[in-house]
Design goal:
The structure is a homotetramer. Chain A is built from ten helices and no strands. By secondary structure, chain A is mostly helical. The structure holds a DNA duplex.
DNA sequence: CATGAATGAGTGTTCATTCAT
DNA sequence: CATGAATGAACACTCATTCAT
């Protein structure tokens, strides 16, 4: 059992180091941008020798990936909670949109950097359908639930999920670019309004429908 | 008149070279990504000496910018034509969505790279409201027209424009990532359907409205 | 005889071009310094094609050398005149010191650049004992004359000439560096005073002597 | 105490490397001149990788400056000692002239290169009145002392100092250029003779002579 | 395990020189 | 002769990665 204990403390120490380095990398990312993310700087900020980083991360890419995962974790958790709740789809949708809006407005600048690494993108979206793919999956589930509840029309839920996320991301992105920051509540309402009721006028809709 | 002729052929040769280098850069971009875009590679692919590139582009950034402009130009033109037509907003919207859909599906992979260059982003979005900002402006104008025609509800047109573009981009992005390629017609219909009618069911809408 | 005429006009044209290019190089030198002296810039300022420079100067070094010769020529001439005059050595010395002082204060900044090229140095001082060596020779001749006239002590004239030139150059150099510009008359007097009478006090001299 | 030991050996190793690189740079300077001083060559001669140089010197300029300081340091020290001594001005002057003469004859070729770097010049003369400015200051102090002792005439000491240094430098320079090497003792005597007694035969001098 | 010195391939950019037109 | 596009070697500097201690 002793070895198990030693092993555990070893593991603990290792994970502490990993986190420390990861945090340092995040700091560097914030201050110097993606192109300014050098192992030297990470080592300096983390207060460890450059070589030590390679004990915990095989290479720079792995470090970047880990940083990304650290950042996105809270959103994953928050999303999970929202989905798990026993609320109507519309409420879940609103909660989800608000959560992502808040999340993106906090971290968008970092995403600019993180999404830059093709390897990270690969990881996030495609390969293991992880993280972002997960976001889609969750919106999809909510849309599906809405359809089943009879409040949403019977549309392809994945595509709808994608549209919502895309719209949401881009709206945030624009706000960051233009510098203006509208209250999140307002943005949430607008997004929901458009997606739920459409931009078409009811009479016209009645006519077309 | 002779100098005019010589001058012309010189200009022609110069523009041929510029295009050649630009094409080479595009090729490198496709194969190696933005981080892999080195002047050496461009020179090699273009089949010219590295130094020669600097006869046509002051520096790397200028080359990148030029490549970007070359790519986006056709879309700008097509957008202009659509906007100028005297058609109802709904038709324009459809044409615009289809155009961008076609355009993005052709170039999305490049945008991943191009949008990554801060200088390019600057150019595109912020500084001179050029290119992408222009796209927003055009969608905005169409939405505005729709509102005036009485077919669209009176929503903030800029935000709606942003949502549509965001949704559109992301849907394409996803298709590229998942590898599946749905017919563009179908995607256009889905986007319009969602944005015009919303995802909510009519009764619910009637109830809310 | 016709070919002779053609030949002459050809030669004339060539020398005109050489001078034009040389002047352009001088201009570039003044504006951009030695490190900024590029063939491109020279061609641009001269208003000729870069390639044309190589018709008149085998390479950059030859051009630089030519520029140097152009600059130093007036001083050579002025020196010649002073030496040729039938005046007492002391008067010649004063005239010479004044001339060089004026000359250096006008061109010192250029010398900083020109003396930088080892090839130029080679040319100027060593190889053909040209130019600068010539200056030494002239000061030497004046000192010699002074000895013969009985107004100067019988010292090794070359070394004395070197000392005077060295002192003269350095005093100017310092003025340029410190930025202060004392009147030339004053500097001339000081130099002559020190070199003619020495810094030692008469009694002390008598004591030492 | 162990860390202190490790630290010390580390520091030692670092200073050994710095010196090695510095020496290599000196070697390159001697063989290829200032324009031929490339980091590649320094690395090759030093037997280290190019990148390693940048562990010890932030950039080329810093390396050059360091080389310069290494070379000039001994002269600074020797000058300090001479000035500090409690000897009559005339003796100090002789010692100083001899010291510089010896020093310059050893390093003049390097100065050709070193003085060429604007940054080095800046450092030496202007900015902190360091090094060369220091030399002037010291000669000035000696002249001043001589005036106070009553052995030198009451002349502007700074200008006299400049003249002596200029003459001294130029005489050495000439010897290097012409290749002839006169005994230093002789040169010292000639310089002092000229500067103390002047070249003119005055009545007083005539009386002594 | 921790270290940080050492590495060396790679980066964008410059510029004297050549040569086909 | 005049041209200027093309060249390519050279430059200072960076940085992910390795490895002896």
């Amino acid at each position: 059992m002793t070895p198990s204990l030693t092993e555990k403390s070893r593991e603990l120490a290792a994970s502490v180091m990993k986190d420390g380095i990861s945090q340092a990398a995040l700091e560097v990312l914030k201050q110097h941008g993606y192109e300014g993310l050098t192992m030297d700087r990470v080592a300096e900020v983390a207060g460890v020798a450059k070589g030590s980083i390679y004990h915990y991360f095989r290479n720079k890419q792995e470090l970047v990936t880990h940083v990304f995962e650290q950042i996105i974790e809270p959103a994953i958790q928050a999303g999970e909670e929202i989905v798990q709740k026993a609320s109507p789809a519309l409420q879940k949708l609103e909660a989800m949109v608000r959560m992502w809006l808040e999340y993106f407005s906090q971290h968008r600048s970092l995403f600019d950097f993180l999404f830059r690494d093709p390897a990270v993108r690969e990881l996030c979206f495609t390969s293991q359908r992880a993280k972002h793919g997960l976001a889609i999956e969750r919106f999809r589930a909510i849309v599906q639930q809405g359809i089943e509840e009879g409040v949403f029309r019977s549309l392809e839920p994945v595509v709808v999920a994608e549209m919502i996320i895309g719209a949401l991301q881009f709206v945030i992105e624009r706000q960051l670019e233009t510098g203006e920051s509208r209250p999140i509540d307002e943005t949430v309402q607008r997004l929901l309004d458009v997606f739920v009721h459409g931009i078409g006028r009811s009479e016209a809709q009645a006519a077309t429908g």
